[in-house]
Specification:
The complex is a heterodimer.
Chain A: H1 16-19, H2 22-38, H3 42-58, H4 63-70, H5 74-86, H6 101-127, H7 130-140, H8 151-181, H9 191-222, H10 241-263
Chain B: E1 2-11, E2 21-29, E3 33-37, H1 44-50, E4 59-64, E5 67-68, H2 75-81, E6 82-85, H3 98-102, H4 104-108, H5 113-126, H6 142-154, E7 160-164, H7 172-189, E8 192-197, E9 208-213, E10 216-221, H8 223-228, H9 230-235, H10 242-252, H11 264-276
Helix pairs in contact in B: 5-6, 6-7
The chains are: A mainly alpha, B alpha/beta.
Chain lengths: 265, 277
């Protein structure tokens, strides 16, 4: 059952979106988010929706996958919609009501904004492997190393964490089986009961995770790991023509949104 | 020519009363296959960890070629010469893809990407994992994982490879894979191999067998000679190969057989010779 957890939600594929350099995709998502926050009127939202839908089309990500990802966000989305409906001044739909036409319009735009925001980031994680993502991140944030920020350490921690997720899941499964064999019950009882039943699983899991971390550190040092300084990479990331075209497209989108914002549509 | 030299090495783990190594003197010849045998707590793992500077002696010194393991300024140089493979393959694999893991050490050394690629491919071919280079390590078998770990060390191009109980967590098939890989590295590539183990049958193919006991070297010699000393082996709580056991029992009953026949064929030949004679 634990094996069903999808990691980083990456869907392997061979579309142009998958082949783009991770740095390009990270930058494009950033541009996209900024553009999204420039949107004021229906025209802007319309354009952004069309752009997002065509990106999904290109990367072979179906609406179903996006909806699956949106599910946990339903509460926040509905709360935003409700607040906007009730707390926006304007002309009431029925005289005397608190609900206004402006409120409804605002609520729809807000919901659209959140949904587009999440969809955009999903497109990134769905088409980029976690390792490519951390590699891209390390290079993009590289200049911040000059400010003494531990960028290399942060990215290597991220990739180690990703590396050990399957190992630790396997271990959790083993511990739970061992506990079940001795009569532990994880499935019945109230929420509190079940949470309490998990404690005897978590303790050995943590102990072993610490032991693993210790051994891993020794093994890494034995293989001459001494921080990011002077480190090279076997797989160099390279920007191809399509990356520059994609970036240009992202910048055009942002410029267009800023222009439309001035027009107020 | 000796490549590793222990000079009167004493070591106590912080907080321990007992010394884990009590004055070990040892020289290991370049290009040889040395097995170190001993029961738990005999100090064999501690010995291994001194070879690449993970542990540093409290007294005495360890020399690898001309590098003193206590010299921190030459630690990277030392670790590049002495590759280390550990017991649990899961805890020494750092990447999500086999070939990325093998590239880890050369990447740390700041080697050119093209040269890393060459080393990675060569190392993977040497351990017979080239076909699985794009696989995720957690989907491999134990023996395969351990071979990836060995490849990860070979990619540094070390002169010595120290394996600290590499087969303790493997099934018989995985053990066989690892031991034959290691033997090939020594015989074909001329690498010095130090194999720490508690399986006596893994020592049979070695040039030299060292038995550790309570932080001391209890026996040191060719595997056949060391096994022949049954009293010592029994005192150390170590089992000997079944052939040696048989010859020993026959000798106890008055048959004049040498105890140095390790494989089944030569053992049988010796017995036949005695029966005819």
């Amino acid at each position: 059952m634990l094996k069903d957890i999808t990691l980083g939600q990456f869907f392997p594929g061979d579309t142009i979106a998958h082949r783009l350099d991770p740095r390009t995709k990270l930058l494009m998502v950033t541009l996209y988010i900024v553009a999204l926050f420039q949107a004021k009127g229906w025209v802007s939202y319309g354009i952004l929706t069309v752009v997002t839908l065509s990106c999904m089309r290109v990367s072979h990500i179906s609406l179903k996958n996006i909806f699956k990802g949106l599910k946990p966000m339903i509460f926040i989305i509905s709360l935003t919609a409700l607040l906007n409906i009730f707390y926006t001044d304007g002309t009431p739909i029925v005289p005397g009501w608190i609900i206004t036409w402006e409120g409804i319009a605002r609520a729809i735009q807000m919901v659209l904004r959140i949904v587009l925001l999440i969809t955009g980031t999903f497109l990134l994680t769905y088409t980029t492997s976690p390792i490519a993502l951390t590699d891209g991140l390390e290079i993009l944030l590289g200049p911040l190393k000059k400010l003494k920020l531990p960028i290399h350490e942060m990215t290597i921690m991220m990739s180690m964490a990703l590396r050990f997720i399957p190992t630790l899941i396997e271990e959790t499964d083993k511990i739970m089986s061992a506990q079940k064999a001795r009569g532990a019950d994880f499935e019945t009882g109230s929420l509190m009961d079940r949470a309490r039943a998990l404690l005897p699983v978590l303790v050995p899991l943590f102990v072993s995770a610490f032991r693993r971390a210790d051994e891993l550190a020794i093994a890494m040092e034995s293989r001459c790991y001494h921080g990011g300084e002077g480190r090279t990479r076997m797989k160099q990331l390279t920007m191809a023509g399509r990356d520059y075209i994609a970036l240009l497209f992202g910048m055009l989108l942002l410029a267009g949104m800023i222009y439309l914002k001035r027009l107020g549509i | 020519m000796s490549i590793i030299k222990f000079e009167n090495v004493h070591f106590t783990y912080p907080g321990d009363q007992m010394e884990s190594l009590c004055g070990v003197d040892l020289e290991i010849q370049a290009g040889s296959f040395v097995a170190v045998l001993g029961h738990n707590g005999s100090g064999k793992s501690t010995l291994a960890k001194h070879m690449n500077g993970i542990l540093v002696p409290n007294e005495g010194r360890v020399l690898v070629k001309d590098i003193d393991s206590a010299d921190e300024s030459r630690l990277i140089e030392l670790r590049r010469k002495v590759g280390m493979v550990f017991q649990n393959p899961d805890n020494q694999i750092v990447a999500n893809v086999v070939e990325d893991d093998v590239a880890f050490a050369p990447e740390n050394l700041g080697i050119e990407p093209k040269e890393i690629r060459r080393r990675v491919d060569e190392a993977l071919k040497l351990v017979g994992m080239y076909e699985l280079r794009r696989h995720a390590p957690h989907l491999l078998s134990g023996g395969q994982k351990q071979r990836v770990a060995i490849a990860g060390v070979i990619a540094m191009e070390p002169e010595i490879i120290v394996l600290d109980e590499p087969t303790a967590m493997l099934d018989p098939l995985g053990r066989e894979e690892v031991i034959s890989t290691v033997t090939r590295l020594c015989r074909d590539k001329g690498m010095t191999v130090v194999l720490i183990t508690h399986h006596m049958d893994e020592c049979v193919g070695a040039d030299r067998l060292i038995v550790m006991s309570n932080g001391n070297i209890a026996a040191d010699g060719k595997p056949a000679e060391v096994f022949a000393d049954m009293e010592l082996m029994e005192r150390e709580g170590l089992t000997v190969p079944e052939t040696t056991r048989l010859l020993y029992d026959l000798k106890q009953r008055g048959m004049d057989v040498p105890l140095t026949a390790l494989d089944v064929d030569s053992c049988a030949r010796e017995i036949v010779r005695q029966l005819r004679g």
